[in-house]
Amino acid sequence: MEKIKSEWFDWVKALLIAFGLFFIIRTFLFAPIVVDGPSMMPTLHNGDQMIVNKFIYRMQEPDRFDIVVFHASDRKDFIKRVVGLPGEHVAVEDDVLYIDGEKVEEPFLQERKEKKPSYQPLTGDFQLEHLPGGYETIPDNHVLVLGDNRINSTDSRILGLVSMDQIVGKTSLIYWPLDRIQTIHD
Question: Which sequence ranges are marked TM in the entry (predicted)?
Answer without folding.
Answer: 12-35
